[in-house]
Specification:
This protein has 249 residues and is mainly alpha-helical. 71% of the residues lie in helices and 2% in strands. The chain is built from 14 helices and 2 strands; from the N terminus they run H-H-H-E-E-H-H-H-H-H-H-H-H-H-H-H. The chain has helices at residues 3-11, 14-34, 41-55, 66-79, 86-93, 97-105, 111-122, 124-132, 144-157, 160-176, 182-192, 195-204, 212-233, 243-247, and strands spanning 60-61, 64-65. The protein has a two-stranded antiparallel ribbon with strand order 1-2. The longest helix has 22 residues, at 212-233. The chain starts with a helix and ends with a helix.
């Protein structure tokens, strides 16, 4: 890719890159965003991306490879939130590793063993951030959405950097609803909608480690997501051709 193409790619919304260039474009956009990270952080980020790519190699998310979601979550944190902390970027790339592939990380083990495996490779801080944004293993008789919301509220209250990862993940999930239809759309909207006020409060807290403009960006995205969820609940399935996805990028 020549310099002009790279400059254009760096200015494009993430979901536009996804639509036009797919995984290859997202990988290039992520490489642009992390190119100036000093060693050894840059190399650790590459290792995290390699691990995440391997774990999720056969996974898909609606119409795309699952790794696209991980790349967008991590790129958004670097390029739109202004984060330069390699541990946070590694955790963003691996944020679904324990939840989706615990047995691949620690054969025969559960979430705890998988988190320990990540700690052995990337350190306690990365593993702790991943644990904070990992949905708990289901409890018999519990509503999974309610359990999920309780976990998010409790874990993010005590982990300011995990809020940053969850905000980007939530943004990507909200934008991704444009590719979802039917009963699944309503189920996901009902899962995510109650989290909007929770995340709004957490992001607004003084100890959330983001600049004011990044916080304002996230809060604006949460408002747009809330509007979208309300329209879905009212039976209006958005058909915006990607416009809202761009706003939520």
């Amino acid at each position: 890719m020549d310099p002009g193409e790279r400059r254009l790619l760096a200015a494009m919304p993430l979901h536009a890159i996804t639509a036009l260039h797919g995984e290859a474009g997202l990988r290039e956009r992520f490489a642009i965003g992390t190119a100036t990270f000093p060693s050894p952080g840059r190399e650790r980020i590459g290792q995290a991306l390699d691990l995440a790519s391997g774990l999720h190699a056969r996974d898909r998310r609606q119409r795309e490879p699952y790794v696209n979601h991980l790349l967008r979550v991590a790129t958004r944190i670097v390029s739109y939130y202004g984060v330069r902390d390699p541990d946070v970027i590694c955790a963003a790339l691996l944020h679904d590793a324990v939840e989706d592939h615990a047995s691949d990380l620690a054969p025969g083990g559960g979430h705890g063993e998988a988190v320990a495996a990540l700690a052995a490779q990337f350190g306690d801080r990365v593993a702790g951030l991943v644990a904070a944004v990992t949905n708990p293993e289901p409890e018999p008789g519990r509503d999974r959405h309610e359990q999920y919301r309780e976990h998010v509220t409790a874990s993010l209250q005590t982990s300011p950097w995990a809020r940053v990862i969850k905000a980007s993940d939530f943004t990507d999930n909200g934008a991704g609803l444009i590719h979802t239809t039917g009963p699944r759309l309503e189920r996901l909207a009902s899962k995510y909608a109650p989290l909007v006020p929770v995340l709004r409060d957490l992001i607004s807290q003084p100890d959330t480690p983001l600049a004011d403009d990044a916080k304002a960006r996230i809060l604006g995205q949460l408002e747009r997501a809330s509007d979208r969820f309300a329209r879905i609940a009212a039976g209006d399935q958005p058909a915006d051709g990607g416009g809202s996805a761009g706003q939520l990028a």
